[in-house]
Each structure stands twice: as structure tokens, then as C-alpha cells.
Amino acid sequence: MDDSKKFRIIQTVASGGTAVLFKAVQTSLDRVVAVKRLHQHLTHDENFTARFVLEAKAAASLDHENIVRVIDFGIEDGCYQMVLEFVEGESLSDIMQRWRPIKCDLALSVVRQICLGLEHAHAKGIVHRDIKPGNIMLTRTGIAKITDFGLAKLTQAATSQTAANSILGTPLYMSPEQAFGESVDHRSDLFSLGTVLYELLTGKQPFASENYMGVIQNIINKEIPAAQRQNPDVPDEVAAIVDKALDKNRDRRYQSARELREAIESYLGPDRLAAAAKHVPALLEHPHATQVVQKPVPAAGPARINKGGVAALVGFVLIAAATAVLLVNPSLRARLPVFTYDDPKPQLQQANATSVETQVYDFDVSDLVGETQSASAPSGSETAPDGPEVEQRRPARTNANIGEAFAPARTTTPPAADVPAKSAPPQEKTSEPAAPSAREGWLSINARPNAEIYTDGVYTGDTPPALSLKLKAGQHKIECRHPRYRTYTEHIKIVAGELSRRDVTLEKLKGIVSLATQEGAEFYVDGVLFGITPIMKPIELDAGPHMVTLQKVGFFTWSSEITVEPEKVLPLKITLSPRY
């Protein structure tokens, strides 16, 4: 892109099968924006360009806090491009790779915001059709935003840009009617959102399978495990919300995004809803943050265990950058002050505390989410560092939802009967924990006319037909190679449990023919007249074999097969023989 134009490109954010997303600056207003540009090789594909235009029109008609806004649209340098607001934050997909499961109230708060965005879109007659964690962005202020309306359907339009009965969307989050290839309405988005909620609460994808068709069969036929079987901390009322959203019969689901939103609001109530919304930004934190908090200590004398009390000191102390020593007294777990993210100043009202001591604790953001299943790299990294899995540094809370986690500290000492007389000695591990299984996703790739496919530099097969590859989650380099075509290279991010598709049309390499012959000769290439000599422009031909012919009245016809080498010049000096 020409940086002297309206938008100055700063960096590439992501590259997908149809478009590239850039971070840019709108020079006229000096503001950061996102520029989504259709791949050059797709600009002549009417199906892709029509879908890209449809996405722009669908998103541009929407104006809501919970939907990424469209700023501009047009064609620049022969490429379709859409300019969007730039979201400072992360996708829910990236967040879920760090935190699985997420505390109930936080999960409901995020889903409620998505309901608000869907309410607005559905009221405009637009069905998104691809609601999934990767298409939900979370800003650093805790605002959830829906993005990527590439498969959006204008329900009021007379025609669709996709063929009848075609299956579009991400398989793991499809509704049953979508998987069947039936027509969809706004209730399909609610099923997809219910799938996202299930995964947030349990840390597990309900329809995962070893292959694409297995996922489709699971969506259509499988009775998914109840959310409480996967996570016993999920309350009955929330499990009922999930079950209704995931009903395979759309007539028994929530009939509108508003109905789902109101069910969430009714369960949480205004106070817990406000508390959860306040702490949503904590999901963007990375596991080890240091905060200064206050903790109560006795007025005099060391802490000791007796019949009327328990030890008063418990904490996490960071000894060095690579070594941490965790000191925990489980009997005082419930008495720790609540960690907050906005200049914490807890109102400590301990009946038996006569002074307050300030101490630095090293803690995990996992206080606000469920038990961590995996540790991820810091923001900006695509893959986790090598080495053993990071052990969870704090015992999981027993309370079922974040409303209880945010409750004020207790003001009285627990009854003596509930306090053990003696702390139990730590149990030694008898065996090493089993290594977690690799998280994988799928890639379906096809290249035309035909190509060798290389993944991370390793040959993985020829296309067509399309190759189905199972890859570890993270960044991979994909190459489609053909000796007479320009190699297609893409760094693709594979998301665990999701299917990505790439349908690539390779660009032919060219070569130059330098022709010297008599004037007035007709020059044919593969039976088609190219020009009459002298030809003043470069004779640029596709790399490979060609049949060339020279004809001139009064001269014998000259014809021969030539081979044009990629990006090379082939000199032809032909002297036609006159007829006698």
C-alpha cells in the first residue's frame, strides 16, 4: 500500500484465506484504524468480491458499542479494502487459551454484551452466521465487540450471495440448521453464542471431534454433556440458560437475543452484574501480576494456632525472576482480602485486627477465572514457550460464581469448631502429572491448477483434491509450490478445535520473448494472433511451453514449440524464407 495515501500502514496484524488485516493510521485525522484488504489474487473472483462488499455493507449499516464499526470502504491499487475501528485488546479465543474455565459471572457479563450487539444487528435484519470466540474482541476497558461480518446474511434481501444449501461458518460453533445446510435466521446466532458460553463456563468445546464430518454429526445428533458435569461450579440456573440456548430445535431456544440477555440479567441482578462488568478487563491480564494490598495482622505477638483462631499470615512471595515460593495456610483462605485491579484499597473490618500491614503479593489472575488448564505466552506471542506446563499457583475457589468471589471480607472469625486444631502436613506427590495433550485444529487447503503443499517447510501432499491437515494450535507457514507459478506463502494461525479453509488460485509466472524478424509478419502464440512485427511492446508470455508461428505473404510459414522460462528472456531471431 502507498503510505502517502489516506491510510499509512504500520504493521500486519493478521492474514487469512481471503484478506489481510493491517494496523494503520488515518493521516487526515491522525487516528489508528484497521485496514482489511482482500487478497490480490481474489480481486477477480466475483464470489469473493461480492461477499467482501456484502460484509462492508452489512457492518456499515450497524452502529453499536458492541460491534466493530466500519469507517470507510473502497478500491485502492486495484484491491478491495475496508477500514474499521482498531480494537485495542484481544480476541476471546486468545483469552480462552489462557483461562479455562472462566468464572461464571465474568462469562455471563461478556455474553450479555454480545447479546446487545446481536440485538442491534438482528433488528436491522442481519444474521452474523459465524459467532465464535475468534470473532469476539475484548477491549482493555472490558467492552466486548463483534467483528467479521464476512458471512452475514441480509435476511430481508431477495437473494443471497451464497449458493442454496451451502454450509458456511466455523463448524464447531454452527447451529444444527446451519450444519444441515438449511436456511438460517437470528436464532442460529443464539445457538452459536450458547456454544461460546458453554466453552467459557466449562473450558471444553461441546462438539469437538477428530474430523470435520465428526463435528457436523455431533452438532446434529450428539447430546452434549451437561455443563455441570464438566464444571460442578456452574449453578443450576446458569446450566438451564445454556441448555435452552443449545436446544437443537430452534423453536425451543431463546427466540431473541433480548430474551437471552434478560435471562442473564435476571440471574445476576444489578449488583453482581455491575461487579462482574467492572472486573471483565482482568481477563486481558497475564497470569503473574504484582499488586500491593493490605492484610490484617494481630496487634502484638506472632501468629499461632490455638482453639480460638488460626494462623493470620498467608501469602505468595516472589523470591526471584525464575523461582517462586508459595506459602499457603488453607484454613485462612476465606479470610484473604479480595484482589482488585483499580488501585486496591480494601475496606478491612476485622473484629480481631488492631493494625494494618502493607505487603506485596505475587498472585495469579486465576482468582477471577476457573482452574487454568494451560499456560500461554505473553500477549503478542503466538505460541507458548517450551518447557513443562506451569503448575497452578493457587488452589481453586470453592464458590460457584464470581459474585461470591467479589463479596467483602468476613468481619468475624470463623467458629472454632470449623477450624482444624492443626494444619495437615503437605502431601507428597506420588507421581508426575500427565502431560496435557496437544491442542490441535484443522486446515483444509486446495490450490489451482495444482501444487505441492508444504507446511513449515515439510512437504505434506499435492492438490487438488483439497488436503485436510491436522495441525497444532499456533502459527504455521503454508506454501503452495508449482515450478511455473508464483509460490503462494501464508503464515496462518491455527486455532485449537477450529477448521480453517484456504482455496488458492496460483499466479502464473511470466517470461519474455525477444523477437527479431522481418517486418509485416503476423506473430501467433498458441494459435492466437499476438501482433504484427515489429512488435513494440515486450512479448510477455506465461512460463512453460508455447507454439509460436510467423506468417507473411510471399514467405514460408515458420512454426515451432518454445519453452519460456520463468522471469527470463528467450531471444528468437527468425529469418523467413521467401517463396519462389
What does it look like?
With 580 residues, this protein is of the alpha+beta class. Among the domains are: 79 residues, Phosphorylase Kinase, domain 1, CATH 3.30.200; 193 residues, Orthogonal Bundle (Transferase(Phosphotransferase), domain 1), CATH 1.10.510; 66 residues, Immunoglobulin-like, CATH 2.60.40.10; 64 residues, no CATH class. Helix content is 20%, strand content 30%. It has 10 helices and 28 strands. The strands form 9 sheets. A 5-stranded antiparallel beta sheet has the order 1-2-3-5-4, covered by helices on one side. α3 packs antiparallel against α5 and α8 packs across α9. It is elongated, with a radius of gyration of 31 Å.
What is this entry, summarized?
The protein is of the alpha+beta class. The protein has helices at 46-60, 92-98, 104-123, 176-180, 186-202, 212-221, 227-230, 236-245, 257-279, 402-405, and strands spanning 7-15, 19-26, 31-38, 70-76, 79-85, 89-91, 126-127, 136-139, 144-146, 153-154, 288-297, 315-318, 324-327, 355-364, 440-448, 451-455, 458-463, 467-472, 474-482, 485-494, 499-505, 510-516, 522-525, 528-532, 539-542, 544-551, 558-564, 569-573.
